[in-house]
Amino acid sequence: MSADIYAPYLMRLEEIVDEAPGIRTLKLAFEDEAAGENFSFRAGQFGLYSVFGEGECTFCIASSPTRKGYIECSFQQVGRVTRALRSLEVGDTLGFRGPYGNWFPLEQMRGKNIIFIGMGIGLAPVRCVIWNCLDLRADFRDITIVVGSRNVELLVYKREIRQWEEAADITLVKTVDPGGDTPDWDGKVGFVPTVVEQIAPSPDNAIAIVCGPPIGIKFTLVSLEKLGFSPDNVYMTLENKMKCGLGKCGRCNVGNVYVCKDGPVFTAAELKSLPQEF
Amino acid sequence: MAEFKLNEGRLQELITKLRDAGYRVVAPVEEEGAFVFKEVTEPGQARLDVLRTARSIKEWFFPRVEPTLRYEFDGSAVRCESGLPESPQKTVIIGCRPCDAASLPMLDTLFDWDYRDEYWFRRREATTVISVACDVPDSYCFCTSVGGSPEGTAGADLLMRRTADGGYLLEPLTEKGRAIIEAGEGVLELASGTEEVLVGEVPQRFALDKVKPWLDQNFEHDYWKEISYKCLSCGICAFVCPTCHCFDIQDEADLERGVRIKSWDSCCFPIFTRHGSGHNPRPTRDTRYRQRVMHKFRYYVDKFGVTACVGCGRCSSSCPIDMNICSVVAGVAELAESSK
Prior knowledge:
heterodimer, A: 7-stranded mixed beta sheet, 6-stranded antiparallel beta sheet, B: 9-stranded mixed beta sheet
């Protein structure tokens, strides 16, 4: 490793997938093959992706650590760097620093029923663990995936949702907010927390992984608690604004916890003990 | 350890000796009516009688703006070069106050927290710090309330104390400090032990041990609104603070080349924590000012075991609307006392 903790890896853009309006997935390969071979990460970790001349921004690694040789990120265009990321073409060079932060407890999840809940672009960090678990399918018991979106068009990873739907050993539930459906929509209509209560996964020997916008997380936690899930068995990721990812730049903290180092993965119990400032 | 004497009127000779020994000498120098730490180009520029420079010595280790990456575009390829200085220039900072020096070991913990920031440490290693004890502190000073002293030695390689005859007594504290004594041979003499040293007094303005327990319990409290009502969110407190270390990372480029820069930032700014979505975890002045106080007096203590304030008083003396962190924290100590 370089002595310079701010130095990025150079990455080559290999593939672009348009997921939804304004949302794109980029597949990145290491320009230095040796660096790529030495690179490893765990599901839930994040990095800083950069467009030279525009800046860095923070996303989780959306691909699974079981898939070697590349990483993927999914992002929604909202500002300067994401606009620049969106204008990149296959073959272009970009930067990546990472992996940073903690990860989902795959070891504790073994032998358990796993409920994945992803809302909107929040499905990206969940997708990373989903593929991680699916690539090691025999290690886990029942797998339930709940995906939600404001409307049908904004649903991300449509191709993969189809794959999960067709898989015999996965229960896939997809829903859009009321009013977000189309005539040919074959999923549910309703907010994710309501849908979670309807399908009522058992809390026994189960772990839930939740990610989405703050308001969605808040109400989904209430639903999971009603179903009997202990806050210790519900995991989520926080996505605060970050600049360094290294516990130094001072902006991602929630109370005395640095999301970039102590997180981004927290249990619901941990989040409850923090000042409600996220 | 043996002490040495610098007689009145011989400071310029010492500075010349240090420059001859290969040091870049940095000292309080007047710049447009204010005093800041600058490289001394004429020995007469150095002013060791300045109590409070406009900014702290922080910028000599952690510059206001510094490139972490330089790059050139070549078609779709990019050539990068790290901004990390290979071997920073050997430097001596002379004339900082013990509070500024104390901020350095405090920030060492942050910059070495798992990820070691060599930008900071290479400059730390290349730099010798000579602090000057305060003979005339003022009403903004509160070092003694946060564990410091007008003649504190934390972070300093050598401590100078004013003597009644107009000279200075020099006490080397580290190897680097002893190297300064060696470089000053011929100008410095062995102290007699009879010199009368002038050190001022800074009254204790609050009981620090009362502060953190109250902060631990009172994230939600009307006090935060009361004290931050007049804050302008201008950020000057963070820029002049020796321990504020929050920074931003931005790119600046043209069509051929660019730089990625790390620059000082402040938790007072509304955009500091604002997400791309527009959501802001700290959307109001009171939530931001609370963060400032909490970070220094609670979170930093939890993380690193020290309070991230050295009591230099710069944030208060620079504040355009006279907010005073010393009074704010003294208010916390009072609340703690009255809520017993």
